[in-house]
Design a protein that fits this description.
Layout: H1 12-18, E1 34-42, E2 46-48, E3 54-63, E4 71-82, E5 89-95, E6 98-100, E7 114-116, E8 126-134, E9 142-149, E10 154-156, E11 175-182
Length: 184
């Protein structure tokens, strides 16, 4: 007795084109996949003369993680200057009201994410870029923001002089904060 078995022909390209990749459930995404992106771009200026850390208005994002195992990758580009002749200012990342991405506590030392360098000219500022991978362990809406401070004056997206003109010293710039949810 002979049994003939025939296999159906499957066109892989056709099957792939039938898939709707926009509807892949986040639970099926492999670890390391980007699940969502939220970003803000601050184009206006901000100045503070507070000796405390102060929220930079317009430089925050809110994201709701889809899983408690998700990580949030924060990418920051901050253009800022401290007051001329005064020691540099600092900036820090915040998750709601909690400092994140800061140095260890020791004595009375400040815990910051990074420095806004000292400038020796009122026509200078600097763009600082950085990233931090956070583990919020929540599925609740979470706000990430940037704070600056600990200098007499801090200027975001402008120079201290802030004079009118068409050369590079009078230019305005942007700062951005982007949050990527990464599958855990």
């Amino acid at each position: 007795m002979t049994v003939n078995i025939s296999k159906p022909t499957i066109n892989i390209r056709e099957k792939l084109s039938e898939l709707d990749f926009a509807k892949v459930p986040f639970q099926k995404m492999p670890s390391g996949s980007i699940l969502q992106v939220v970003s803000t771009t601050k184009t206006d200026t901000f100045t503070t003369s507070s000796s405390s850390f102060t929220d930079v208005t317009g430089l925050s994002v809110s994201i709701t993680p889809t899983s408690t195992s998700s990580k949030i990758l924060l990418v920051l580009s901050l253009t800022a200057a401290g007051q001329n002749g005064i020691s540099g200012a600092g900036y820090r990342l915040m998750r709601d009201s909690t400092e994140i991405g800061v140095g260890d506590s020791e004595g009375s030392r400040l815990q910051i994410t990074g420095m806004i360098p000292y400038i020796s000219n009122t026509n200078n500022n600097q763009t600082i870029s950085g990233s931090f991978l956070d583990s919020p362990s929540t599925t609740s809406a979470t706000t990430y923001k940037v704070q600056v401070g600990k200098s007499l004056n801090v200027y975001v997206n402008r120079t201290e002089a802030n004079t009118d003109g068409a050369n590079i010293y009078q230019a305005r710039s942007v700062s951005t904060l982007t949050a990527f949810e990464i599958a855990g």
